[in-house]
Amino acid sequence: MTSLFPALTDDPDGRAALRFGDRSLTYAQLASAAAAVGERIRGAGRVAVWATPSLETAVAVVGVLLAGAAAVPLNPRSGEKELGHILSDSEPALLLAAPGDELPPAVGGLARIDVDVRATAEPVAADPDDGDPALIVYTSGTTGPPKGAVIPRRAITSTLDALADAWQWTGADVLVHGLPLFHVHGLVLGVLGPLRRGGSLRHLGRFDTDGVARELTDGATMLFGVPTMYHRIAEALPGDPALAEALAGARLLVSGSAALPVHDHERIAAATGRRVIERYGMTETLMNTSVRADGEARAGTVGVPLPGVELRLVEEDGTPLTAYDGESVGEIQVRGPNLFTAYLNRPDATAAAFTAGGWFRTGDMAVRDPDGYVRIVGRKATDLIKSGGYKIGAGEIENALLEHPGVREAAVTGEPDADLGERVVAWIVPADAQAPPSAEELAGHVAARLAPHKRPRVVRYLDALPRNDMGKIMKRALPS
């Protein structure tokens, strides 16, 4: 698969490819270690990878791709039931793991191969088609058992090349992040992305602001993170001038996997002079849109469609919106070479996910500005609130609430109301639990910034909001 990672066969200067803590590999070393993995899995169709944030995980996935097989990344924090479902559904031939990893009983029936990052071998001859599966990535399973999205090789190359165009990403870039490697963000963008460009990855293992400052000061040019990470950065900046200086020197700060609150955008920009840019993607689509490196980093937006990606907003009846006014809400539908091909073993779910013409129903609601910028306002299933004849996106209310100094975290949902149809409910983690802002104060705060019909009618206070591994708020887990 030299077309995926050209630098693996062109490494005259011993360039650094991967670094995890104090362990690293050059491109030549990575090519040899990955070839050794490929040799050991020869003939396998699907291969599970115990996806810890380690050098072994990166080598394993690259080796699987070089061998023309499909990798099934496993979240080491998954419960027995979820792991059992994923393994019975994907039926991998074997499991790759780092030596010494303790594996749960759910994977005990699989043949295990330990990945040796210092092994050497000649490349395995493989000539997969662009449409062949590269990854089987399981969705979060919020509405049932996780579904395996079959991601073809062309989706990876098209997404990474489109991001290279949008972000002016080159082999000179050094990326730093501390993202998990069982999701698209950390694995495809965060590991395969630098390798496709011929650049370098420095993985923090576990995210912390000291590590970010250290790596950006020591030559890293790009930082990838999720909103929880950028929130911690924003909180730390006032007392950490070294962090502010390091971020100010970065070429690109990118946030994804969930919306970054506007108040965190503004705090980071004020302290560093640099604006975080956002992009929008899904497991099934990889990346769809992004703010461009040479464009306006407009807080609260996910930019414009990437090269090769078609995007439209549609009404509830499937009619496309014809005018983009920055106010009209519609569901995002996309099509292009970045899309998955199917949900594994689920032809019914696959058929339901697409409309005529090959448009994928994302389930995400958005508005689009006249110049093409897209603003996500929430998920159709949990974040679209129909109140008093209006369609309201939870996301913009959450941003408004987070601008209140008494609010640390916020989530917004709808609940049945005999008069309005649905009423807006705000779930608040107060900055000071002993003196939380009143419901009346928060309602007035939102009404003054957005519109009266978007104000919360009910406010509920919590110690913390439920979140998943990527920092996304799990609204279905809120108390009933």
UniProtKB/TrEMBL annotation:
Residues 396-472 form the AMP-binding enzyme C-terminal domain. This is Acyl-CoA synthetase. InterPro entries: AMP-bd_C, AMP-bd_C_sf, AMP-binding_CS, AMP-dep_synth/lig_dom, ANL_N_sf. One of its GO terms (biological process) is fatty acid metabolic process. One of its GO terms (molecular function) is medium-chain fatty acid-CoA ligase activity. It comes from Streptomyces adustus. Belongs to the ATP-dependent AMP-binding enzyme family. Residues 12-344 form the AMP-dependent synthetase/ligase domain. Pfam families: AMP-binding, AMP-binding_C.
